[in-house]
Amino acid sequence: MPDRYKNKPNMLSNQRCAYINGLRHFSSVTACICYFIRFLPLFTVTGGAGVVIIMTGRIVVLTDVFMIFIAARLFLPVVFV
């Protein structure tokens, strides 16, 4: 049995892993866009403070914490009413 046939399943599994990783990356990008759209009123209230929200919901970059806090106090009742 030649070596090229031995290596073929390994190549296929590597391609499958790359495809799954690509899908995961695409889904995380779409989740970031959805979070951005959901928190867009908060961005406009704070005056465009740099907040980057990732799929897990963590706030990564906060340029103005105090303004975010005030905006959250103003914005959260609108969400939960």
Structural description of this entry:
Keywords: Membrane, Transmembrane, Transmembrane helix. The protein is mostly helical and 81 residues long. The protein has one domain. The chain has three helices and no strands. The longest helix has 36 residues, at 3-38. The model is unreliable at 46-63 (pLDDT under 50).
Count of alpha and pi helical runs: 3
Low-confidence stretches: 46-63
Q: Total domains, how many? A: 1
Largest sheet: none
Measured between the Cα atoms of the first and last residue, the distance is 69 Å
The total beta strand count reads 0
In what range is the share of β-strand residues?
Answer: under 5%
Keywords: Membrane, Transmembrane, Transmembrane helix
Transmembrane segments: 21-40, 52-76
Write the layout of secondary structure elements.
Blueprint: H1 3-38, H2 40-46, H3 65-80
Helix pairs in contact: 2-3
Keywords: Membrane, Transmembrane, Transmembrane helix
Transmembrane segments: 21-40, 52-76
